Amino acid sequence: MAEILILTKNSLAEQPLQNTLQRLNDEVYCSSRLFFEIDRCSDLFSFFSLVILSDSISTIEISHYWSSLKKSKLPIIRKGNKALVRQSDYDWMIEEIDDWIEDPMSAAEIVDMVTKYTIKPKETVTSKGGSSTDPSPYSDVSYYQFVSSLSSKEQQFLLRMYEAQGETVSREQLCERLWNREPTNSSLCQLSTIVHRLKNKLSLVGLNEQDIKTLWGKGYFIEPTLHSFLEKYEFH
């Protein structure tokens, strides 16, 4: 069972979403206060598996509290119009947010999206009567959980690293690949965020976040273990 936190300005407006998520038999909490007290109540986020930001909270307000939200290291889903955000001064948020609930998504689509971020490995019994966690690192389940959680830019980054076959790829080359333009301070900063998020997502499914390496002043490379893992499933 997962614990899902909906942050909103109007709890009653989120009732349809709560009803939808409760089909998963998860615990769903809705707060109209916690978002604006996140700095004071940051420890509470450790009790949750996922955060959903309501469209009743403006993009400007989200940007103001964004650094505090990211400290939770939880997957973040945003209700709202992704296209409008892309056209605004807050377009950087597109890649920062893990997923979007947009009209006219069906209840089934929302359930599938949330399950992707809250699914937990099953316990299996070992020959000695104890328990072990499935999936083990680099298993079928961990691969599909990991890949399904990737944003477009994260997938492009990982594909470029996979194509390099263990060679170091400079930050400038990666920025040109991801944004089709000369690197800027903004794109270099976004690249660092993408790498940080990828490492977190590797860790969330039991993979080794250290398989993405940073060579300071040179760029990034991936370890042979991760490359072989992606090659096994014909990552593309």
UniProtKB/TrEMBL annotation:
Gene3D superfamilies membership = Winged helix-like DNA-binding domain superfamily/Winged helix DNA-binding domain
Q: Which residues bind DNA?
A: 114-224
Task: Kindly indicate whether the keyword Transcription belongs to this entry.
Answer: yes
Swiss-Prot/TrEMBL keywords: DNA-binding, Transcription, Transcription regulation
TM regions (residue ranges): none
* Chain ranges of the OmpR/PhoB-type domain: 114-224
Protein name (database record): Winged helix-turn-helix domain-containing protein
Which organism encodes this protein? Candidatus Enterococcus murrayae
